[in-house]
Write a structure and sequence with these properties.
single chain, 17% strand, globular, binds adenosine-5'-triphosphate, EC 5.6.2.3, DNA_helicase_pif1-like_DEAD, hydrolase, nucleotide-binding
């Protein structure tokens, strides 16, 4: 088959050719076969193929359709005139591929490693003997004919046959973790393959035996926010007591009266208030989850807009003290930037600033100074960041998307989903300063949407007009263009640059302020020579990030973007090199992996998810202890007809992997590091990118310890949530119910952005593919001693050269 050579000859004509003298019409005779042959065009490729007599088609490997059935529902074929008892007396009438599979598993131990679908790879079906025999040659794959989800137990039996290895009977198929379930459906549910409200019941019931009432409340809120609970009220009614059992005691203690009793209605109301506050912190409300009751906020302190109250809920004196300390320590660049921004703030001039500085130049320090200044004066500052991991380092930080309700799918006319009469709009009107960190990572349409929305919300304010940028608010953006820019699917270099803030008209209003002094190195107070080494390393990293390190081309017409890596960082590529990389980043893994400090300081980075998954699996297998595999429940988001469902059975959905989505099989062991894939609860530091260590594995939940961000050491409960792929590459909408985590011994370079690590291994089985990925990977390391790189180049390419993609135009006019 070759592209572009098929052709069609289309002609529209009257089928009446002519009328003869007697007036009779004559019709053109149409020979469709001849027309087809005339039209058939043999391409040169196909002609040659035929001349050489090559095979035109073949099927490899062969495929066998595996019959399966419910107990005693074997298919029997008979003629109308066959006698019923004769049919029943036939030899092997009960034997089918499925029952014989059970029998083989009873007698052959090695066969038990295979699922029914995998079975034909090692065994062949002899139809005449109705028996499986060991396969001697050839390759074959099994397929289970599709069962519609409405076909009941048949559907669930089919799901189990795709998962369970070595079953010896139907009962064995229904036995999960030693429990015999009454139906195949119940067995599927126990394996986590189904998704319904019962899952949340079980997760909360399990959590109530491990965790405090406070943790349960927080977990209930994340369930509401991230899962599609059909009846949240029923869930609340079932579990509110375990979420409230600390309250009687708390009130008795606070009031110093052990006799006091509070009725259930009041207890529920007090806890609903708390749930509402947790949800508010995450931009949601109980109102979003009908039929949940709304608490009554009769108390005077609740009468103010709760969003505003939360932003004013600071101790002004300690904010002032903090400000004084921070301000006194500002370096020259920071002081200049701080003064300029403060001038605008003091005179209420509004305006837009961009604080540009590479990693360690004290941007976060400057944000803290500005934030404490504004808060100490009882004013409101909103601090946001483009990524969750950056947001948790900002005091009171949120992601820009959640704070401003920026739509996920953006275009040039998008606006934020904020109603002008909402509490959020009121909060924005009251805000004196907005800080937006890691701005280069965000799509320019996001800034434009916020600009449009703020203009709309603020158009009636006294000193604003629709012409003022961001409606006249003072906005400070910050970040470093030496980092991964917004991702444009299948977009090239120009497309990537064109979606950054620099290409927006907003940039014309921006005053750029530079921070150049690397405070991270200065702060280490190292001996002079070590300090110099560190400065050299940092400067070298900056040159890599700006594309200033001399580069060559490896092909005649290729771009000159291959740079030589200093040998001190390199691990020579040979058959043992991957193990050496693992050992250098994770020395004494088996003895040390239970130490969370050890894990928090290190990671291996690779450009693609596939390589990261392989590394993680390898490292998991190196650890002692029993692993546990959690399977996801996968469904279509919107079933709009049977066609899609008929074509795509569940195991096909299970086999799909998407970036940013956990895989169907999630294998974990106690003590393994994992990374969160969603912003679960930003106020508790649970963001996309937060790393955790698994401390306990339940049936429906995981207990984990936070090892990054602002809440290090906290124990948090992670449950399954509903996830949909964020990339547009998914051919149809699917929903996956799974723990929103992945193993994190290794992670993708993009995911590592914002993390700081002592020991970094960079694994490059293929070159990096986007702007400054190499810089981001290398600069995760805090010192040259903590960096190791394994490059796997093609045999004829030099082993120590590495591709460095930098879109230099992004640095123009900065
Ligand atoms: N003026 C200062 N005085 C003392 N320490 C400072 C000062 N500025 C920054 N630091 C310290 O230097 C280190 C790096 O600063 P900071 O985290 O603010 O940099 P950054 O630009 O935000 O880095 P990154 O982009 O990597 O997050 C921190 O430990 C910070 O406390």
């Amino acid at each position: 088959m070759s592209k572009g050579v098929d052709r069609a000859n289309v002609q529209i004509e009257n089928n009446v050719v002519l009328a003869n003298e007697s007036g009779h019409r004559r019709y053109r005779s149409v020979d469709e076969i001849k027309q087809y042959l005339d039209c058939r065009y043999l391409s040169p490729i196909e002609s040659c193929w035929k001349i050489f007599d090559f095979e035109m088609q073949r099927q490899y490997p062969s495929v066998i359709r595996l019959q399966y059935h419910l107990p005693d529902h074997q298919f029997v074929i008979f003629n109308d005139d066959n006698h019923f008892y004769d049919v029943l007396d036939r030899d092997h009438i009960h034997d089918t591929m499925l029952t014989k599979w059970f029998e083989i598993n009873q007698s052959h131990v090695p066969a038990r490693n295979l699922t029914f679908v995998e079975f034909p790879s090692k065994w062949t079906w002899k139809q005449n003997k109705r028996q499986w025999e060991s396969r001697l040659q050839g390759r074959c794959i099994g397929r289970l004919p599709y069962a519609h989800s409405h076909s009941g137990e048949q559907y669930y039996l089919r799901m189990l046959l795709n998962k369970i290895r070595g079953a010896q009977s139907f009962e064995h198929l229904r036995t999960i973790d030693g429990v015999v379930h009454p139906t195949f459906k119940a067995a599927c549910a126990a394996l986590g393959l189904l998704d319904d409200d019962n899952e949340w019941n079980e997760a909360l019931a399990e959590a109530s035996t491990w965790a405090s009432a406070r943790k349960l409340r927080s977990m209930y809120c994340t369930i509401l926010m991230h899962s599609e609970v059909t009846n949240p009220y029923a869930l609340w009614q079932r579990h509110w007591k375990s979420m409230t059992d600390d309250l009687q005691y708390q009130i008795k203690r606070d009031m110093g009266n052990s006799q006091i009793r509070i009725d259930d209605g009041e207890l529920q109301n007090l806890r609903l208030i708390e749930l509402e506050l947790i949800l508010n912190k995450n931009g949601r409300s109980l109102r979003d989850f009908p039929p949940m009751p709304l608490p009554s906020f009769e108390n005077a302190q609740f009468s103010m807009n709760r969003l505003i109250r939360e932003e004013l809920d600071y101790d002004f004196t300690s904010e002032q003290q903090l400000f004084d300390n921070l301000y006194a320590g500002l370096n020259e660049d920071q002081l200049k930037a701080c003064e300029l921004i403060m001038e605008s703030y003091t005179h209420n001039h509004g305006g837009l600033f961009f604080v540009y500085g590479s990693g360690g130049t004290g941007k976060t320090y400057l944000w803290r100074t500005l934030i404490t200044r504004v808060r100490s004066q009882r004013k409101i500052v909103l601090s946001v960041a483009s990524s969750g991991i950056a947001a948790i380092f900002l005091p009171g930080g949120r992601t820009a998307h959640s704070r401003f309700k920026i739509p996920i799918n953006l275009d040039e006319s998008s606006s934020c989903l904020i109603n002008t009469n909402s509490n959020l709009a009121k909060l924005i009107r009251e805000t004196s300063l907005i800080i937006w960190d890691e701005a280069p990572m965000a799509h320019r349409h996001g800034f434009e949407a916020v600009d449009r929305t703020l203009k709309n919300i603020l158009k009636l304010s006294e000193n604003a007009s629709e012409d003022c940028i961001f409606g006249g608010k003072l906005v400070v953006l910050g970040g470093n263009f030496r980092q991964i820019l917004p991702i444009v699917s299948k977009g090239g270099r120009e497309a990537t640059v064109s979606v950054t803030i620099k290409e927006s008209t907003i940039w014309d209003h921006c005053k750029v302020l530079h921070l150049k002094i690397n405070m991270r190195v200065m702060n280490l107070r190292l001996p002079k020579t070590t300090c110099q080494q560190l400065m050299d390393f940092t400067n070298w990293l900056l040159s890599v990030g700006e594309g200033k390190v001399s580069a060559i081309s490896l092909t005649e017409f290729g771009e000159s973007n291959w740079i030589r890596m200093p040998s001190q960082f390199l691990i020579k590529n040979d058959s043992q090199s991957l193990m050496r990389l693992i050992d250098s980043v994770y020395p004494n893994l088996r003895d040390s992996y239970r130490n969370s400090t050890y894990l928090k300081e290190r990671a291996i980075l690779a450009p693609k998810n596939g390589d990261v998954d392989k590394l993680n699996d390898k490292m998991l297998s190196m650890l002692p202890g029993q692993s546990r595999t959690y399977m996801s429940a996968d469904t279509f988001c919107n079933i709009e007809g049977d066609i899609v469902e008929n074509m795509n059975p569940p195991e096909m959905l299970h086999s799909l992997n998407f970036p940013g989505l956990p895989n169907h099989f999630l294998e974990l062991k106690e003590g393994t590091p994992i990374i969160l894939l969603r912003n679960l609860n930003q106020s508790e530091g649970l963001c996309n990118g937060t790393r955790l260590v698994v401390t306990r594995m339940g049936d429906k939940l995981l207990e984990t310890e936070v090892i990054t961000g602002s809440n290090i050491g906290d124990l948090v409960l992670i449950h399954r949530i509903s996830l949909t792929p964020q990339s547009t590459r998914s051919p149809f909408p699917i929903k996956r119910s799974q723990f929103p985590v992945k193993l994190a011994f290794a992670m993708t370079i993009n995911k590592s952005q914002g993390q700081t690590l002592k020991n970094v291994g960079v694994y490059l089985p293929e070159p990096v593919f986007s702007h400054d990925q190499l810089y981001v990977a290398l600069s995760r390391a805090t010192s040259p001693d903590g960096l190791k790189i394994l490059i796997v180049n093609r045999d004829d390419d030099p082993w120590d050269y590495i591709k460095n993609i930098v879109n230099r135009e992004i640095f123009d006019s900065l």
